[in-house]
Design a protein that fits this description.
42% helix, 7 strands, 14% strand
């Protein structure tokens, strides 16, 4: 079914994103500069981590974040495990979501929105069902309906269901609601375990630490593995 844009989505959402992103870049530029300098000193170059992600209509764009890992390698020249390359400073950036500030640039140029489904990995595109593909009928966002309803601790099925629910019900009221819920979770640390126990490696794979053990988050709901099993039936 073709996605039909309402008045807010068609005429207001994008201009509002641009204005707010521009103001945020101006206000937060000293913070971003300070973080960039600290990343350069504590982690090294490049300051930004870039990765291709699918955006509006599945078009590929470059996602920017502040780096949280070093490029340390073993004697064979291979990168060390992510846990060894993730620095204390990098963990702090992730826990506070400050590593995502460069995504404001993606909003400015029109690749992202403040509110929308989070952009996942390009390799997942071929595994989406026809309904799940509709999550790309809108621009991906810094935060979304799935993020304020469980984030990493809900199944992929629930994440996609919430993404599609957002796509089908976009409104100024819903965007404001998601924005305030996102800010509430950030400031009151209501999902503190979600923010600190979950780590994403450079390949976009998420891991959670429970005690001294590290587990891949929701391995049973992994997009690729689950979809491949369905295709084999």
């Amino acid at each position: 079914m073709e996605h039909k844009k309402g008045f807010y989505e068609k005429y207001i959402k994008r201009p509002l994103d641009f204005i707010c992103a521009l103001l945020a870049c101006i206000v937060l530029s000293p913070v971003m500069l300070a973080i960039a300098i600290l990343v350069k000193i504590k982690i090294g170059s490049p300051v930004l981590f870039t990765q291709e992600r699918p955006g509006l209509y599945g078009h590929i764009f470059k996602l920017y974040k502040f780096r949280t890992m070093t490029n340390e390698r073993d004697e064979k020249g291979e990168l060390l495990p992510d846990a060894e390359r993730l620095t204390a400073f990098g963990k702090m950036l992730r826990a506070s979501s400050l590593d995502e500030l460069p995504e404001l640039i993606s909003i400015l140029v029109g690749d992202m929105s403040f509110i929308g489904p989070r952009p996942l990995l390009v390799r997942y595109l071929s595994f989406y069902s026809d309904e799940e593909k509709h999550r790309h009928d809108v621009r991906p966002g810094l935060s979304g309906w799935a993020q304020v309803n469980g984030r990493s601790f809900i199944s992929w099925e629930d994440k996609f269901r919430l993404d599609i629910e957002y796509v089908n019900n976009i409104s100024l009221f819903m965007d404001i609601k998601i924005l305030f819920l996102s800010l509430k979770k950030f400031f009151d640390k209501s999902d503190v375990e979600d923010a600190t126990a979950i780590e994403e490696d450079e390949n976009g794979v998420k891991w959670c630490t429970i005690g001294e053990e590290k587990y891949r988050c929701y391995d049973a709901f992994d997009i690729e593995r689950k979809k491949q099993l369905k295709h084999q039936k």
